[in-house]
Amino acid sequence: MGRRSNKLSARTVATLTKPGRHADGNGLYLVIDPSGARRWAFLFTHDGKRREMGLGSAGAVTLAAARDLAFEARKRVAAGIDPLEARREAAKAIVGKPTFGPCALGYIAAHEASWRNAKHRQQWRSTLETYCTAIWDKPVDEIDTEAVLGVLQPLWQSVPETASRLRGRIEAVLDAARAQGHRTGENPARWRGHLDHLLAKPQKLSRGHHAAMPYSEVPAFVASLREREALAALALEFVILTAARSGEVLGARWSEFDLAAKVWTIPAARMKAGREHRVPLSGRAMAILAKLAEGRTGDFVFPGQRPGKPLSGMAMEMVLRRLKAEVTVHGFRSSFRDWCGEETHFPREVAEAALAHVAGDATERAYRRGDALEKRRGLMEAWAAFCEPRASDNVVRIHKAAS
User: Fold this and answer.
1) How far apart are CA 187 and CA 175, in angstroms?
2) What is the mean predicted confidence (pLDDT) over 92-118?
């Protein structure tokens, strides 16, 4: 315990490329495999034997989180407990106990036939998978009020509509689990007579008023994002550059990208309007993808901590909080639209197409079959250029309209 600790920094972790073990101290190592894969490991001695305990991918587990995990493991070693064996025993203890994730997916499978709206079916799955990461692998009979509040409280004020719907979905899943005999007692996600005493009354839906950052402040904000060595910061910058919705970005898979053509095609099933949407990728957006491809670990472009799952939607919200930005992720779409209208001469329909909005009446849409991809490419390159941090004035006026 007397060895020097905290030898690594977040920047060092992000930039190290040499294969081997890189010590942080007190048994924690960043391990870079010859393949380039990066992971955390805790080395310890138990019963005279040298052992290694994996602590997760360096792409999903931050340096601070790895230190916390190593600290907990060291406490077990000091108490004469093998942390590897303790982890195995904990896993055995929950075998046979259904966890929240399978119960949620089972509920969706049982009810989705009655949900005629494809968007509704997709939203049920995406909201539960995105925001319930903290309870996803928790035995369903151990989910209590504290666990439910842990999921809801970070969202309750920033995205009240989503949080309110999420609460109702968690309540439905837990009710179904009780009906199946997997849990007993009151439902900790129940609103009336329970959570209504612990959370503020949900705000009524107010469409089109997501807190947005003035577009003139976006370049400086992007500069602050680039100072953070975090996957969530890259995801948020990608949201800004593509003017996409957060769910579209978090659910993005590598198979949706044609990197040679610089086009991202979002399938209809993942779009709010239920129509396929093509996004032309700017140079900076391509650079972000190139960086992510170097450490690619699965099909999700922005992978989460759990294998096979995307980054949590809360990750970008937390970036905004740490940077003290009192805006929403969705609000950057408004920043983009305001910039289009006030700083450029790109046609309105091109800007609306970039946001995947349905513009014009039915007759106008019938005659306009294309999606103005190449015109939008010029728009998105201009937006990326505007968002690029500068030492001087960040406002770049685009006087010439795209032809």
Assistant:
1) 7
2) 78
Length of the chain: 403
Residue 139 CA from chain centroid, whole number: 23
As assigned by CATH, the class of the 215-387 domain is mainly alpha
Contact 178, 190 (CB under 8 A): no
The per-residue pLDDT for range 148-186, each reduced to its tens digit, is: 999 998 888 877 888 888 999 999 999 999 998 899 999
Q: 100-197 maps to which CATH number?
A: 1.10.150.130
3-state secondary structure of 2: coil
Helix (H, G, I), strand (E, B) or coil at 118: helix
10-93 has which fold? Double Stranded RNA Binding Domain (3.30.160)
pLDDT of residue 403 exceeding 60, the answer is no
Count H helices and E strands in the chain, helices first. Answer: 17, 7
Residue with tokens 């968007």: 119
φ, ψ of residue 282 to 5 degrees: the values are -75, 170
Per-residue pLDDT tens digits for 10-19: 888 888 888 8
Q: Residue 217 gets which letter from DSSP?
A: G
As a whole number, the mean pLDDT across the chain is: 84
pLDDT for residue 5 is more than 50: yes
Report domain extents, the chain: 10-93, 100-197, 215-387
Per-residue DSSP letters for 253-311? Answer: BGGGEETTTTEEEE-GGGSTTSS-EEEEPPHHHHHHHHHHHHT--SSBSSB-SSTT-BP
